[in-house]
Write a structure and sequence with these properties.
The protein is an alpha+beta fold. It has helices at 7-21, 37-51, 93-96, 98-105, 154-159, 161-167, 169-191, 232-241, 278-297, 320-328, 337-346, 357-368, 422-437, 448-455, 468-475, and strands at 59-72, 75-82, 85-92, 112-121, 127-138, 195-196, 202-203, 215-218, 223-227, 245-253, 265-274, 301-304, 307-310, 316-319, 377-380, 392-393, 396-400, 402-407, 410-417, 461-467.
RNA sequence: GGGGGUGUAGCUCAGUGGUAGAGCACCUGCCUUUUAAGCAGGGUGUCGAGAGUUCGAUCCUCUCCGCCCCUACCA
């Protein structure tokens, strides 16, 4: 069901036919470049320093996509775009010869070409490659988006990201920054003695978080499997196995709603370090985030969607219960469930059914406090009820040794002293099962295999998870994680009539 | 899931109950240092899809589809 060809496509295909009839192959296999556009420009700047304004460079070979062409009779200017940027080309009939010159002016925007020529500076001051030879490497059969406004239609930008990348250079910058962020994460963790590992994506049981999983089916084994919703439980097994410090940067999948901060598949960093605790994780997280801001942005203070965010040590720290208490004007450590339910009602919140003290505290926090945490802030001491894998706080058994890091009102990281008491862990899973029975469909499943592993002895461990997409969106000042995911999910086109 | 917005040429967008426009792109011609090149000429379209109202619908009504924003659930 190929769409009908437009006028411009027909014209381009006619040119293609014409070229082939002249014995020119419009799809070549190789072109040896000597310089990228940026390297060529740097090269000429050097040549110019020693050779003066009339300088010419040595002969260079450049390749890229033709993104602008201005035919002015017997001379033609064009712009060639490659990964590094753009460089102007000048083709002159007396240099190329009549027939090659005609073929050059007959090129279309979007064609991929290779050229040979020397570099000079035009009267208007632009460093330019005057070509003596060119070759068509790949004929483009469809017209490019508009040159001045770029590609704006979000649907097209996401569905045909390659066009977005061609037409909007700042989009390329965003994805390069994201790549640097991941690379610098690895650099940082290597410096701290972490080992990178890979754990199963297909799991018999989707654990490590409370979320609805995607289900799939293994034909040969004839069993249902789930796509992972977290990395946690397998990484913990590795700590039990003797890895001291492990991490994984991997895709996880949650079968839930999507918006500017949620995607059904997203990239999570999780790390575990033996013999440390939530305090150690806080130090590590703060150092990592500051390192990343420094390396990706080069400055500790950034603008995010018009608000200034300062990444300076130490990040703010606040107890979750205290933060909520402050807003409601009441010490909630001393509040009972009916009191909390009253507050929930008063603020017009409709929570999941059957929540206890901790669940209600967490609910109030999300509704009343979270959005206000624009500057990087560690929120500490989450209730046990919402933390089935975290170690209980010795000073208050209703709470855990846990933190979440909020930036721009969004949860970026989550960490805790890992629960390493197998019997307590079993009890937590049983609590989760009770919550499920009471109507909560996002509870942690009972995982006997994991409990078995814990029973062999799980060293005291600090663990941390960080949402890579969210952090990337904040560090690149993008309003949605869709803008830092190359191919975000969209509904399939061509739905039934 | 609920509310709002939007869909018109390859792209960016205007517009009207009487059969569709601009800029860029494209085609023809002129132009040897231009650069959102310029000048002269050319409109290339299932006005998201279907049904209805109407003499006549791109426009009005209904249904459906995509995308965006807000809201609900989740990290």
């Amino acid at each position: 069901m190929e769409a009908e060809r437009t006028d411009q496509e027909m014209q381009r295909r006619q040119k293609l036919q014409m070229l082939r009839s002249q014995g020119i192959e419009p799809y070549q296999s190789r072109f040896d470049r000597t310089h990228s556009a940026a390297q060529a420009i740097a090269l000429f700047e050097q040549v110019e320093q020693s050779g003066g304004a009339e300088a010419r460079s040595e002969r260079v070979a450049l390749a890229g996509r033709l993104v602008a062409i201005r035919v002015m009779g017997k001379a033609t200017f064009a712009h060639l775009q490659d990964f590094s940027g753009r460089i102007q080309l000048l083709a002159k009939v007396d240099k190329l010869g009549a027939e090659p010159y005609r073929r050059f002016t007959d090129l279309d925007l979007g064609d991929v070409i290779g050229v040979h020529g020397t570099l000079f500076r035009t009267r208007r001051g632009e460093i330019t490659c005057e070509i003596d030879d060119f070759v068509l490497l790949a004929k483009s059969l469809r017209p490019l988006p508009e040159k001045y406004h770029g590609l704006k239609d979000k649907e097209l930008r996401y569905r045909q990201r390659y066009l977005d990348l061609i037409a909007n250079p700042e989009v390329m910058e965003v994805f390069l920054a994201r790549s640097r962020l991941v690379e610098e994460t690895r650099t940082f963790l290597r410096g701290r003695g972490f080992t990178e590992v890979e754990t199963p994506v297909l799991q018999a049981m989707a654990g490590g978080a409370a979320a609805r999983p995607f289900r799939t089916h293994h034909n040969a084994l004839d069993m249902d499997l789930y796509l992972r919703i977290a990395l946690e439980l397998y990484l913990k097994r590795l700590i039990i196995g003797g890895f001291d410090r492990v991490y994984e940067i991997g895709r996880i999948f949650r079968n839930e709603g999507m918006d500017q901060w949620h995607s059904p598949e997203y990239t999570m960093l999780e790390l575990y370090q033996a013999y440390t605790d939530v305090e150690g994780m806080m130090e590590l997280t703060e150092s990592l985030v500051i390192h990343l801001v420094e390396r990706v942005r080069g400055t500790p203070t950034i603008q995010y969607q018009g608000q200034e965010i300062r990444f300076s040590r130490p990040f703010a720290r606040v107890e979750m219960v205290e933060a909520v208490s402050r807003v409601v004007g009441e010490d909630l450590l001393k509040a009972d469930v009916p009191t909390l339910q009253g507050l929930i009602q008063k603020h017009g919140i409709q929570p999941k059914p059957g929540l206890g003290w901790g669940g209600l505290i967490a609910e109030l926090f999300e509704e009343l406090v979270q959005d206000t945490l624009v500057q990087p802030t560690f929120v500490l001491g989450h209730p046990v009820e919402v933390s089935p894998l975290a170690r209980r706080r010795s000073s208050d058994p209703r709470l855990t040794d846990r933190f979440e890091l909020f930036i721009a009102g969004e949860e970026i990281a989550n960490a805790f002293s890992e629960l390493n008491d197998p019997d307590d862990q079993r009890a937590r899973f049983e609590d989760q099962a009770r919550a499920r029975a009471a109507g909560d469909d996002e509870t942690h499943p009972m995982d006997e295999d994991f409990l078995t592993a814990l029973e062999y002895g799980f060293p005291p461990t600090g663990g941390m998870g960080l949402g890579v997409d969210r952090l990337a969106a904040i560090l690149t000042d993008q309003p949605s994680i869709r803008d830092v995911i190359l191919f975000p999910h969209l509904r399939a086109r061509h739905a039934e009539p």
